[in-house]
Each structure stands twice: as C-alpha cells, then as structure tokens.
Amino acid sequence: MAKAACIITKPSLPTSIFLSYNAPFMKLYWEAFLRLIYPATCGVCNALLTLTETGLCQPCQDRVFHLRFAPDDALLSNRFQSLDEGWTLYPYQPPVQDILTGIKFAGKRWLIRVFHEDIAMLTQALASENHYDAIIPVPMARRRFLEREFNQSELIAQRIGQKTNVPVETDLLFKKHHTPSQGLLSQKERRINLQHAFEVRKKDAVKDRSFLLVDDIFTTGATAEEAARTLKTAGAKRVHLFALARTERDSRN
Questions:
Q1: pTM for this prediction
Q2: Confidence grade of residue 181 (pLDDT, cut at 50, 70, 90)
Q3: Which helix H or strand E contains 135, and what residues bound it?
C-alpha cells in the first residue's frame, strides 16, 4: 500500500500583516493616482500641490506661519465693557484673509485645517490658565445659516473643544434676527446694528458659569461685546473671546 506523500509548506504571513506593512506605500500610491485624475491646488494661489502638501502650498503655508502673532501681541488691548479679555492669532490680511474668505463665501470648509495647529497651541495655553465651563461659537441668524449651511465660528470652536476637552455648547446663545452686513459700518453704527441681536434661552445653564466665546474675525468688537453683554445679563460670571484674526481697526494703541 503506497504511503501518502508528506508535503511541507513554508508558513506564510497573514495577509493583514502584509497590508498593514505596506499601508503607507499604498496610501501614497492611491493619493498619487487621485491627484493625477483630480489635481489638488493651493487654496490661496492655486498652485498645484505636491503629495506632501494639503490645502496650501508650502510657500503660502509659510506666509501664514510668519503672520502669527507673538504671545504678547495675541492679547487684545481694547477696553471692553462686557468682555473680560480677548485673544487673536493673526492679522486679517492675505493669505489669512484669502483663506477665511474662501471658507465663508466659497464653501471651502476644509481650509480651516490650515489653522488647526496654531489654534490648538494658543487655546490649550488659555485653557490651562483659565477655567471655562463651555465654549460658545458666535451664532448666526437662521437666514444666514441656511444660505451658508455652516457656521465658520463653530468650525473653530469644535477644534478648540477637541484640544482642550471643554464642551462646545451651541444651544445657549442665539441670534434672534438677521442683521445687515457690518462691513462698511462705523463702530457706532455696528453697535446700533447689533443691539439686542442675541438672546439666551437657557438662563439656568448660563448663570455663574465662565465661557470662551469664539469668532472668526475681530474688527471693532461690536459683535463680541453684544454677545458677551447678553451672556452677562443672563448671569454669566466671565466671558473671554478667541477670534482667529483681527483687522487693523483694532489698532492696539
């Protein structure tokens, strides 16, 4: 009776290990393939991006980095009535201005990631020195929200919440009605335009709590002041402001 042949095979590595080992290469390969079909361009200058660039080309990214305020210059020098203190990261000028315009008016939400590291760095420092019960993005009127489909201040607030572990609460402060654009208004006109524009619907959730108010652009401070006044009237203990950029109207003198 013939004996069955004994076949010895070499042990093979599980497919999952092979795929895991080659994952970085496969990701790069896939990215290169997609870029070939759908070329990615810089969100500011429209230059073609390399495989290692995301959102902005390296020269534009460097320009953003060099615009960032030094720690002492980030603090707003304005004398506020309702806000306790405020900070900003950049001057509102190109390319920061171009990026924020693209986010707000061209729907390029992904460009907010350009600022993620700088946002995290400053706000983590703020949260380590100040206690915040919640982060509140400056709200938009319903009409404006339906037009834009997102609130850019909320995108910034979400990033801060991720890095500070402070909850983002969007159901405390509301904008009651649509207000005309403030772009061409004076500081006095802005204050009048925004009078009683905000409301707090859950006063018990505001009383004796401290908040970090978040906005994208600080110009005269009228919006932030009215929002802070509304929160303070409802019983808030302290209201600080973080705005991504500030215009030259702040002037710091």
A1: 0.80
A2: low
A3: strand 134-137
**Alpha carbon 108 to chain centroid distance?**
13
Sheet strands side by side (includes 85-91): 85-91, 238-246, 210-218, 134-137
Q: Which residues contact 21 (CB under 8 A, 6 or more apart)?
A: none
**92 Cβ contact partners less than 8 Å away, ≥ 6 residues apart:** 100, 217, 219, 245, 246, 247, 248
Kindly report, residue by residue over 116-159, the tens digit of the pLDDT: 999 999 999 999 999 999 999 999 988 887 888 889 999 999 99
How many domains does the structure of the chain reveal? 1
Whether 43 has a pLDDT exceeding 70, the answer reads yes
Q: Are 241 and 76 spatial neighbours (Cβ–Cβ below 8 Å)?
A: yes
- Euclidean distance between CA atoms 221 and 182, whole angstroms: 11
Which residue range forms the structural domain that includes residue 81?
73-250
Report how many helices (DSSP H) and strands (DSSP E) the chain contains, helices first: 10, 6
Cα separation values, 118 from 14, 112, 159, 252, Å: 42, 11, 11, 21
- Report the CATH number at residue 142: 3.40.50.2020
**pLDDT value of residue 213:** 98
- Which residue carries 């019983």 as its tokens? 235
Cβ partners under 8 Å of residue 144, min gap 6? 178
Contact 186, 219 (CB under 8 A): no
Q: What is the pLDDT of residues 208-219, one digit of tens each?
A: 999 999 999 999
Whether residue 31 lies inside any domain: the answer is no
Residue-wise over 151-186: b if at least 16 C-beta within 10 A, else e?
bbbbbbbbbbbebbebebbbebbbbeeebeebeebe
Q: How confident is the model at residue 96 (pLDDT cuts 50, 70, 90)?
A: very high
